[in-house]
Design brief:
By secondary structure, the protein is of the alpha+beta class. It contains 4 helices and 3 strands, in the order H-E-E-H-H-E-H. Strands 1-2-3 form a 3-stranded mixed sheet, with helices on both faces.
Length: about 110
């Protein structure tokens, strides 16, 4: 992956996170944008997100992001200048939840040993 795409990924990640937490602040408290993968042709972008909370919070986040996808893209176009504004695809990133579960499991083992 070239340096240009890495910079674009980071820029888009930062701006989408900013848009979500400023324009959708009440509903998006539990949403974290973990990564963005913009295609080399700049036509598509996979936006990975994580949600702290139970499955209800996850469903609410999915509904919020899918309902506001066009608005997020429109606002992104106002702050990011690219040849093409990528189509956004929001994908659940379970890595944070898995990490928390792993730490909890390790804590349980540590307590059992003592």
């Amino acid at each position: 992956m070239g340096q240009r795409i890495k910079r674009v990924n980071e820029l888009v990640k930062r701006e989408i996170s900013n848009i979500i937490h400023t324009h959708l602040r009440d509903e998006a408290v539990n949403i974290t944008i973990t990564d963005v993968d913009v295609a080399p042709d700049l036509r598509n972008a996979r936006v990975y997100f994580s949600v702290l909370g139970d499955t209800l919070k996850l469903r609410q986040a999915i509904n919020l992001l899918s309902k506001n996808k066009k608005e997020i893209k429109r606002l992104l176009g106002k702050v990011v200048t690219l040849k093409y504004l990528p189509h956004l695809e929001f994908i659940i990133d379970p890595s944070i939840k898995k990490g928390i579960e792993l730490i909890d499991y390790m804590d349980e083992i540590d307590l059992e040993e003592h």
